[in-house]
Write a structure and sequence with these properties.
By secondary structure, the protein is of the alpha+beta class. The protein is built from eleven helices and twelve strands. Strands 4-5-8-6-7 form a five-stranded antiparallel sheet. A four-stranded antiparallel sheet has the order 9-10-11-12, with helices on both faces. Helix 4 packs antiparallel against helix 8, helix 9 runs antiparallel to helix 10 and helix 10 packs antiparallel against helix 11.
Length: about 325
């Protein structure tokens, strides 16, 4: 598959990049392009201009530590995040689960947080989409996953987002109107097409992680193969416990089952004030999976993914209950 024609711009400053995006209505940001370029080859997206961030200094690197907080540049590779002892375990595990070693050597933190939503209809070949007729995400008037509705149900496909949410991370966005900072949890909206609150002419420049003393976290991923595949389900969990093992803070986020990561608030509330005993873990996993309603828009069935939501939440909490884990 060949790429469509496009202009390629290489700004040397963040200000230049923002101006280029502002002045080019058909432009898109490119870091490593490990998701964008395949989507362009399939004609899912066809930007007329790509604005590269590769020549802009200070957008890569990891600064700080667990005691004082960590800042990760948007162009930091997933390989470097997965290998850093200063990054909380959940984010390391999520970064290390993405695709293959070759892709992790290139793919970036900002790219994975901004990765496009996926669906078995829109992510098919262009010829198949033409034969089937366009869905909402392809410019049609129907969602083939839920034909009676008026919403696109392409699923969130970022591994990093659920992990970043449970560790309380925030992102910095820079655009024509200045910069703003927001929690990663507020970066996404439940719409498979317009799935991010980030403006088209805004650039995600860094991820900030608050001090994580005594916070244990992890990330587990369901996929058909143990490498390369996008998540069919992602479960991120984090707990902060007292000296006697009582949960003082709990966060559970499920990814890849809806257009945005889902917070399992009822299960979090249930865990508060309890110890992670086998009975508590099993009960919390059922509570977390209860509201989950996966659609048939992936290559694993919706019933199986719902069942596995409870299984993976239980596995994550059991891992966090073990001394020295997370």
């Amino acid at each position: 598959m060949r790429l469509p024609a496009f202009a390629y711009l290489t700004p040397s400053t963040l200000e230049e990049a923002v101006a280029m995006l502002r002045d080019s209505p058909g432009a898109a940001v490119i870091g490593a392009g490990t998701d964008l370029l395949p989507n362009m080859k399939r004609r899912q997206v066809q930007p007329t201009t790509l604005v590269s961030l590769g020549a802009i200094p200070d957008l890569a690197g990891i600064r700080g530590d667990a005691a004082g907080g960590v800042v990760i540049g948007a162009l930091t590779t997933l390989r470097d995040v997965a290998a850093s002892p200063d990054v909380p375990r959940a984010l390391r595990a999520a970064a290390g689960s993405v695709a293959s070693p070759q892709i992790r050597n290139t793919a970036t933190v900002g790219g994975n947080l901004c990765v496009d939503t996926r669906c078995s209809y829109i992510n098919a070949t262009e010829e198949w989409r033409i034969a089937a007729g366009p869905c909402l995400k392809a410019g049609g008037d129907v969602c083939w996953v839920a034909p009676k509705g008026d919403q696109c149900w392409a699923v969130s496909s970022t591994d990093l987002a659920p992990a970043a949410i449970v560790i309380g991370a925030s992102v910095r966005l820079v655009g024509p109107d200045g910069e703003r900072t927001m929690p990663v949890a507020d970066l996404y909206r439940p719409d498979g097409i317009d799935h991010m609150v980030k403006g088209r002419d805004e650039i995600l420049t860094e991820v900030s992680i608050p001090p994580s003393a005594r916070l244990r976290s992890t990330y587990l991923k369901l996929r058909r193969r143990r490498a390369v595949d996008f998540p069919m389900l992602g479960v991120a969990a984090a707990v902060r416990c007292s000296d006697d093992g009582t949960v003082q803070e709990a966060r559970l986020v499920l990814g890849a089952i809806a257009p945005a990561p889902l917070r399992a608030a009822a299960a979090e509330e249930f865990l508060m004030g309890r110890r992670l005993t086998p009975e508590v873990v099993d009960a919390a996993s059922q509570i977390a999976a209860g509201p989950v309603r996966p659609f048939d828009n992936a290559d694993l069935g919706s019933r199986y993914r719902k069942w596995m939501a409870a299984v993976f939440v239980a596995r994550a909490l059991r891992e966090l209950s073990l001394p020295g884990r997370g």
